[in-house]
Design brief:
4 helices, 83 residues, mainly alpha, globular
């Protein structure tokens, strides 16, 4: 659960790098996605790894869309990468 909260917090931090007019949309989108997947079992590492991969991939896509450096997501990548 701690890792999920760290990932969510990092996604919200990245959203603050986006243009002001798009921040509320992506903040709502991120919250809805994290809420929708809260029922995933903590022991289901395959499902969690997939969700973390998607979290990182979607974040990179949005950053690229708004020409924000991918390096801004290095901390998110560290959080989302399986150990």
């Amino acid at each position: 659960m701690q890792k999920v909260l760290r990932a969510y917090g990092e996604v919200l931090r990245l959203i603050r790098l986006l243009p002001k007019e798009s921040r509320s949309y992506y903040a709502k989108y991120a919250r809805e996605n994290f809420v929708n997947y809260r029922e995933v079992e903590a022991g289901d590492t395959a499902a969690l790894d997939e969700l973390f991969d998607r979290t990182y991939a979607h974040s990179i896509w949005v950053l690229n869309k708004y020409s924000v450096e991918e390096a801004a997501a290095n901390k998110l990548k560290e959080i989302c990468t399986p150990r």
